[in-house]
Amino acid sequence: MNFCSNCGERLVVLVPPGDDRPRFVCNACETIHYSNPKMVVGCVPELDGRILLCRRAIEPRFGKWTLPAGYLENGETVADCAKREAYEEALARVENLKSYALLNIPFINQVYFIFRAQLANDDYQAGNESLEVKLYRTDDIPWSELAFPVIREVLKLYCGDLVTGEFPFHMVDIAPQTGMGGAHQ
Amino acid sequence: MNFCSNCGERLVVLVPPGDDRPRFVCNACETIHYSNPKMVVGCVPELDGRILLCRRAIEPRFGKWTLPAGYLENGETVADCAKREAYEEALARVENLKSYALLNIPFINQVYFIFRAQLANDDYQAGNESLEVKLYRTDDIPWSELAFPVIREVLKLYCGDLVTGEFPFHMVDIAPQTGMGGAHQ
Question: Of A36, A112, A164, B110, which one is least surrounded by beta carbons within 10 A?
Fold first, then answer.
């Protein structure tokens, strides 16, 4: 961040009065420019004991498998976002959403919020951001071909809960990874 | 948003290729400037059947009562944020955090995430952003003097759950209000 998005002047970095950390500040128009984590929202879409995964048609992690999820948009609830992403990435309608997990990824300033959801029917296909979409039995999840550690973590929680039949709300902190082909998450 | 924070040129509003909604875009350096909802994180601090409320020393809603909560910062987990806010606003140490509720406020692009938490001890006092802090029995909650509808909603859920003794994870959408003294939440 170099310039003030309000007036166009150069920004400085300083701790504003009453604050406790450095911010980008415009001395010309006195705007403080805050930067905060973004929410990524998605779901585990279920149908007859299987879950729907999407193979990414976009970078990062082109060709790897993921759950339908994406950035929460302004004006949107988290449930709306999960439904929109399932439709955009898998042309799938999901319903009966249940809050399932929050995953912190503080080193990239992201918070994932994940629902469990039911696929309304078996009418789905790859959206623009997917190469293919496929229902997987949990025994067949392509663990070595998952796009991100956060997705692996959600699926591990889910498979574990399937064993007990109980799906409590989970909170997990994701640590930086060195493996996964250099993925930054 | 008028100017590019990267290069300082004037921004335009357009739907980028592959996107489905208007964004602020810089034609000079080709940066797309996304705007996304912010997370506000806090807790219901409990001690011996009472809960800690803070009377705001800042606008908006100066002088009104609220739960300790604030914007999630970069590099922070939601649990870290809830603990930090309890300390900043009430000089209180909270522990044993349990995920309790997510509240969507889409018309102001906010998502509240609220924990239940235990006060570590009765050592607390007003921080810089509070006029006073006080332990309230649920029978004595100052309902007409609460700062925001979202706080009222959390406290209503909490009082309801106290009756059953069960505290499931809640998800609530907050609607625009016309009362509450014109508060925009």
Answer: A164
